[in-house]
């Protein structure tokens, strides 16, 4: 189809453009959201996708609305990977969806066309069959010359070996694609091969930086700030400036300062690494940073956006070292009211590198005298008492800012974060725990939010057509309706009319029994799934200023300014603040690319955590934990493992020892009964009943917690 025909069809409403989602458990089913978000357009069969893969932007031809037919719509479906749940006949009672739509053109290939998987020998063929782990990707014919030398004679040796394959061609009349083997990864189930497979599939560039890129960095080491650069900046090296980060952090983006003024107000500074000084616009280093767009944080390592010389040394705000920064400095009242604001390039010398635990200990013991032995090395120019007072003042102001944000309608959906303790030599998981979000984390968060909002207003005021901002649309009405039905099933009274009402409901209306916290966590998971994703955009590309709004923060303008070491958008925001301008079309494409890489990075991080959890359970089990049921479909159910904050979808057809499954609805509430076989045939089968909000003990072997992430999907 010609480009002009596509444009005309989109204008007439005969064609619809959207992101393709393929059901990971039923790979013949795919969906594209309708433009108004009221329903999903169902694509039935592989041929209807016209060789598009999951995540691609596609154009779909649909029938006129009068020819649409009712298919199904289940409020529990979005609890898994989008619309992946099966539905019973009783669920097929709502939602108008087009009949027999099909992809007419792949508007933009987003999928990497790479996959990890296994090889199968085919007798009397000059090619082998590659079967991706992800069933949404087609099987691929690969030439035998790409396979290991002894594959033909000893195919059994490779049954559990993971390979990387790249699709090179997919004939229109064939369900099988053609491709080439790119790499042998290693044994399935092992951390490094699985991790490399995940990164390759999500197009994460984990290669070493080229010599050409490294030549863009300062060559005369150790590096020091040139005198002419110092003269152009506000000198804050004598100020009490410090960093607060995770104990293991090596890329220190941000620092804080706070001093009380004679009038009782406070001068508060947020100082951000001036990455744009080292990353010259248009350089090879800039190009590779823009392509990567974000650092990717795996359980066992970080794939940096920038070379480590910048990330961990020249840009990192390491203690007792002069560093270039971009600062926003406010005069704040004790209640957090902004009385004045200043932006500019600065130079700082952080007096101490504190962990969140160090800062938390000061917050919890404000009257304690801390000795030098209890803290990291500290500059002799600033007493520990001075640093403690600054942290306590920041904490008090942050509490005021936080209370005001939520009173104004902000929404916080903090989900439990699983962390791991690793063996120093093997990097294998030795233990796992839920990360504790403390007042010290909230302190840093409040001032980073304040700085990001200030930067957004600053660049939008000056460059209303060129500002890169971050918007968060409200949840679509369909998702709110589905969430309301889920809450009704759980017997919860939740206000979904506004972000303020939802935040209050999450913190006030969930009871005070022993499972109140579990219900809050389950509901937080469900609310997060109902939300649309926040995204970057260029203001010149959106004409309606109301669409700039950030729903969760409930603010009109927001951007990312505070993490330029690990996010490329922040580098662009720094350049805009420094009046280094670019063209509108470039910024629009840049925002879209950064959205894609941020989404991929988030999914890779999640899969890394799932992989480590599966390996941990397998190696360190047995693991039994209470779990709360989040939702029930007719052949699967979702649970939250309470001890670890891990969410899993459990498919009945994969449960060992299961004799029968019975699904029914009791009023609006779905209910599933599992009948288990007994090892002793003379004994009667046992039954377990599952419904939303019910709690049971989950066993790792019976329920498959020790399976790798990609097996479970």
Automatic annotation (TrEMBL):
Instruction: Indicate the annotated site residue(s) for Important for catalytic activity.
Output: 253
**What keywords is this UniProt entry annotated with?**
Cell cycle, Cell division, Cytoplasm, Exonuclease, Hydrolase, Magnesium, Manganese, Metal-binding, Mitosis, Nuclease, RNA-binding
Q: What is its EC number?
A: 3.1.13.-
The record lists Mg(2+) as bound by: 245, 254
**One cellular component (GO) term of this entry:** P-body
Q: Does the keyword Lipid metabolism apply?
A: no
Q: Name one GO biological process term.
A: nuclear-transcribed mRNA catabolic process
User: Per UniProt, what is one GO molecular function of this protein?
Assistant: 3'-5'-RNA exonuclease activity
PANTHER family from the UniProt entry: DIS3-LIKE EXONUCLEASE 2, RIBONUCLEASE
HAMAP family in UniProt: DIS3L2
Tell me the protein family, please.
Answer: Belongs to the RNR ribonuclease family. DIS3L2 subfamily.
> What is the name of this protein?
DIS3-like exonuclease 2
| Annotated organism of origin | Cyprinus carpio
Q: Which gene encodes it?
A: dis3l2
